[in-house]
Amino acid sequence: MDRVALGRWLSLALVPLGVGLSVGGSSTGSALGVSVVLFGLAGFRLSHRLFDPDAASPGSAIDARVADLFQLGAALLVFAFLTAASGRFESLSSVGASLRSPWDFAVIAVVDGVFLGGGMAVLTYRWGRLRAVSQTVGVRAIGGAATFGTYLALLVAAPSAAFLYAAVYTLARSIALFRLPPSSQW
């Protein structure tokens, strides 16, 4: 099965998952479920542009940016899904208050969020050898495991630090996405 077909099937598989989350009953689960359904439908509709590395011409910066933002959105949905699955929701006031006490976890969250969010993108862009290695499935799996494993570990140890990690990861990745050329041009 090629990448486009696999991307279509995985995107389509998000639809029943989102419906299942929506049926759960809580307002958070319903919002997450609707987001997952819409994300799955968008992924299915745009799968040729998102999953085919040869689909975008080198001059097509807009398609590459859309694919990069789609990947960032997917990461945010995984963060939300892990939070919903673990039941570790906290109010913003309790997150702010608890960030003062577990200082070590907050430092870990910020450092890891910057490194995994934007730092790896910059390193991959700068080093040709790392760029070539990062295209393999194994290295991408390790990167995903590091990104989501860090979030899950922080979510278990200090949920407020996990939310800080997700925010810093998103900010660092967004800065890297818009300060560097599109990833298809690397």
Could you please describe the fold and organization of this structure?
This protein is mainly α. The chain is 81% helix and 0% strand. It has nine helices and no strands. It has helices at 3-23, 27-45, 47-51, 61-86, 92-98, 103-126, 128-133, 137-157, 159-179. Helix 5 crosses helix 9 (159-179) and helix 8 (137-157) runs antiparallel to helix 9 (159-179). The protein is globular and about 40 Å long. The model has no long low-confidence stretch (mean pLDDT 78).
Give a short summary of the structure:
The chain is mostly helical and about 190 residues long. It has nine helices and no strands.
Structural class by sheet pairing and helices = mainly alpha
Low-confidence stretches: none
Q: If you compute it from the alpha carbons, what radius of gyration comes out, rounded to the nearest whole angstrom? A: 17 Å
Strand residues, percent: under 5%
Query: Sheet with the most strands?
Result: none
Shape: globular
Order of helices and strands: HHHHHHHHH
Number of helices: 9
What's the overall average pLDDT, rounded?
Answer: 78
Beta strands, count: 0
Distance between the termini: 26 Å
Helix content: over 70%
